[in-house]
Write a structure and sequence with these properties.
heterodimer; A: alpha+beta; 2 domains; 5-stranded antiparallel β-sheet; 17 helices; B: alpha/beta; Rossmann fold; 4-stranded antiparallel β-sheet; 7 helices; 36% helix; 24% strand; binds magnesium ion
Chain lengths: 461, 276
């Protein structure tokens, strides 16, 4: 290879390189400072038309970013690739092998189709620069991994993506390591990965910003409409007060009675909705006749907002305040569950029931072994939505009728001008709602190990 | 050597008309083809000519509108019985693969005998493990299909079919999505399985080299409506290996096939242009 080397002395060239890196998928999100440091270790080279940049089997030291022109990228035999030959142009990155840990040989042959300019970056130097900023590096490696997955059918290669020098936040280990653990161990594995990534810190920052803004608006500057709203400090004091001014705090047993009655209603409503909604949805998707009877009715009733049912519910269930509220929560979550379950059945590839029939499964066995598990991902999406709407309609119903519950707390506090208590009720709702929906998600992951593992290999946890 | 093969498929004057929303499509017309017990019969033909339709009729995934299909002496479908009952005597390996993603590879392979009630779960798993080991699939038993490469997935699927000791294997472009290297490995694996099992193989492909390399006979289909235009005898003795590919006879046969297929492809192309 004889490449024309051009030094990167001038400031304008540096700018040019930074702009180029920013236009590529893997480096797009890096800071100017980091890009500047990468620009220092990069060299811009001109390659004449027809020139082979590297061959299969060459040692892989450098990564290339195409600055101009066109380059043909042909994977060598044996690479289990989805696309063997592709043409890359400005902003594309080639030569990933330079970032692989053990496989430091080229897997492809690359040829310039016209006179092209390439930015050449030494793989080891790049890893060193990235090593100083693990968060950014994780981002870069993750994007690389994604691009590699798109090209190759063998996800195991991912495991070879180099572990960062600092030993922190590596994209490779999660995919490789995730493949043989299940259940609790998998859960712990994901938690620990989560803690190692940037997510938890971003989360903390997000909350801090939210509460900070709230505090400043309502308690410090008393701005405009926020002036009459209780600030976070005031709410916190009341919430943790052994002798609450307005009667409700973590020390009052009443607080827990309210939480428990709401949870109990959700539990009952959600359980009934699931027990009825899942089978109804399965049969809606499975049996055409059943669907022709039921679906029109279903579709007519579904758009009616749950609040519109409140009067009728109270008339229907005269026995106390409890049943109408549960009925409303059940109704709302039933629709979400049944509809998503039906879509889940429809989403199943025709080849699966056919294959099962070939293997001798009866209609019922196909239902049990193909339809139910095949619809499960959608069912759990439905259940997530369904807990959400259950809470939504529960609170609405509690505000109208009811003697206990968080919706009741919010409404009566408003009537009795206990503003901090309103916010306590709201925050409690947020927390309890989040927990229930997380529980549903965990149940889903537990029942769909296959999916968790597939997604982990796809680079999305 | 192939005298003790398993099931013969007789396709007699089969018609199939799709009637999608009042616009009838004649996919198969007066198609007759004898597939001998224990032979590998390759089906090639232009895209959209009706090959999959024919395979689906044999498998029992949809009805036919005329003629009959026989497996040995049993009429699968025909007058009075428009649709065959799918069953483990004719197992399909699908173009895009149909291993159940929610079952492990071992559970997939053991699925057939368990749902048929032929074996207990434990016995089926034991046998599945054995067959998988013989096919070089040890170590993948507890992975899910989503976790292994597409070549390995295809092998698991073939083993899943063989677990049922089928008379006929129906393959619809099973290796289409594989790269050429994996494909050649799969060819050898399939032949090895075939030499042990003598199962009858009905194999649809677009790849002429694959057709001649694997097949005892190659049925070249006309453009839609589909029927055999020419059935080519591949007089290269089995067992075969890759040296066949460079032999003179192979090239001659290849030439003959290319010629016939090209003619049909041009017709299909022109018909397509007229429709547009
Ligand atoms: N369910 C259907 N309803 C109406 N027409 C159909 C249906 N299925 C297939 N066809 C039509 O029948 C013809 C034959 O289709 P088929 O899938 O059997 O072709 P093929 O030979 O397998 O094609 P390919 O090589 O592309 O797989 C096509 O023209 C197709 O459009
Ligand atoms: Mg087809």
């Amino acid at each position: 290879m004889d490449l024309i080397v051009q030094s990167l002395a001038g400031e304008s060239v540096r700018e040019h390189v930074i702009a180029l890196l920013r236009s590529t998928a893997p480096f797009a999100a890096l800071s100017d400072k980091l890009l500047g440091r990468i620009a220092v270790i990069a060299t811009l080279e001109r390659v004449p038309r027809g020139e082979v940049i590297y061959q299969v089997g060459d040692p892989a030291k450098d990564l290339y970013v195409v600055a101009s022109g066109q380059v043909r990228h042909a994977l060598g035999p044996g690479a289990q690739a989805t696309v063997l030959v592709k043409v890359v142009g400005r902003g594309d990155v080639i030569g990933w092998a330079a970032l692989l840990k053990d496989r430091s040989r080229r897997l492809a042959k690359t040829t310039a189709l016209e006179e092209s300019e390439l930015l050449k970056i030494r793989g080891d130097q790049l890893m060193e620069v990235l090593g100083d900023d693990p968060v950014a590096a994780q981002e870069v490696l993750e994007r690389c991994a994604k691009m590699i997955i798109e090209d190759f059918t063998v996800p195991a290669w991912l495991a070879q993506v180099q572990v960062l020098p600092t030993g922190k936040a590596a994209a490779g280990t999660r995919a490789g390591g995730a493949s043989n653990i299940r259940g609790l161990a998998l859960f712990m594995h994901r938690i620990s990965k989560w803690l190692q990534g940037p997510t938890p810190y971003l989360m903390v920052v997000g909350f801090a910003l939210f509460f900070g803004a709230w505090y400043l608006l309502s308690e410090v500057f008393h701005l405009w409409r926020f002036a009459s709203i209780p600030g976070p400090h005031q709410v916190l004091i009341e919430w943790l007060n052994p002798n609450p001014v307005y009667g409700l705090s973590v020390y009052s047993s009443e607080y827990y009675i309210h939480i428990w009655s709401s949870i109990r209603r959700i539990l009952i409503g959600f359980t009934i909705a699931t027990a009825v909604g899942v089978p109804v949805g399965l049969f809606l998707g499975w049996s055409r006749t059943f669907r022709e009877y039921v679906f029109p009715v279903f579709e007519t009733l579904r758009p009616i907002p749950v609040l519109a049912w409140v009067p009728l519910a109270i008339v229907m269930f005269k026995s106390g305040a409890e049943t109408p509220v549960i009925f409303l929560a059940t109704l709302a979550s039933f629709y979400a569950t049944a509809l998503n379950t039906m879509l889940g059945v429809e989403s199943i590839d025709e080849a699966y029931p056919r294959a099962a029939a070939c293997l001798g499964a009866s209609k019922w066995q196909i239902f049990r072994h193909v339809v139910i598990p095949g619809a499960l991902p959608y069912i759990f999406t439905g259940l997530q939505i369904s807990v959400g709407v259950a809470w939504f309609s529960l609170v609405a119903a509690e505000m109208v009728s009811g003697e206990y519950g968080l919706g009741y707390v919010i409404n009566t506090s408003y009537v009795n001008v206990r503003y901090p208590t309103i916010v306590i009720g709201m925050i409690t709702l947020g927390i309890v709602g989040y927990v229930t929906s997380a529980l549903v998600r965990m149940a889903g992951d537990y029942m769909m190990q296959w999916r968790v593992r597939e997604l982990a290999l796809g680079g999305r946890e | 050597m192939l005298a003790n093969g398993k099931g013969a498929i007789r396709i007699e004057h089969v018609d199939k008309v799709y009637d999608a929303a009042g616009a009838p499509v004649q996919a198969i017309s007066d198609c007759s083809l004898d597939i001998r017990a224990g032979e590998i019969c390759m089906i090639v033909g232009p895209s959209g000519c009706g090959k999959t339709t024919l395979l689906n009729a044999v498998a029992g995934f949809h009805d036919i509108t005329g003629g009959s299909i026989w497996l040995d002496d049993e009429m699968l479908c025909g007058p009075g019985k428009p649709q065959a009952q799918p069953g483990p005597d004719r197992v399909v390996v699908f173009q895009n693969g149909a291993l159940f993603p929610w079952k492990t590879n071992l559970e997939n392979v053991a699925f057939g005998p368990v749902v048929q009630g032929r074996m207990s779960k434990a016995a089926a798993r034991e046998k599945a493990r054995e067959l998988m080991a013989m096919a070089g699939l040890s170590g993948t038993e507890n992975s899910y299909p989503g976790e292994i490469s597409s070549g390995v997935r295809r092998r698991v699927e073939i083993v899943r079919a063989l677990m049922n000791d089928p008379k006929v294997l129906l393959l619809d472009e099973p290796f289409r999505a594989l790269d050429s290297l994996t494909k050649s490995v799969m060819h050898e694996a399939l032949l090895e399985i075939y030499y042990k099992n003598k199962v009858t193989i009905f194999f649809i492909t677009h790849d002429l080299e694959e057709a001649i390399f694997l097949g005892q006979r190659v049925a070249i289909m006309t453009t839609r409506p589909c029927k055999p235009k020419k059935v080519l005898d591949v007089d290269i003795p089995h067992p075969r290996d890759y040296s066949v590919l460079t032999s003179r006879r192979f090239r001659e046969l290849m030439e003959e096939t290319v010629h016939a297929v090209h003619e049909e492809a041009v017709k299909a192309f022109e018909a397509g242009e007229k429709e547009m």
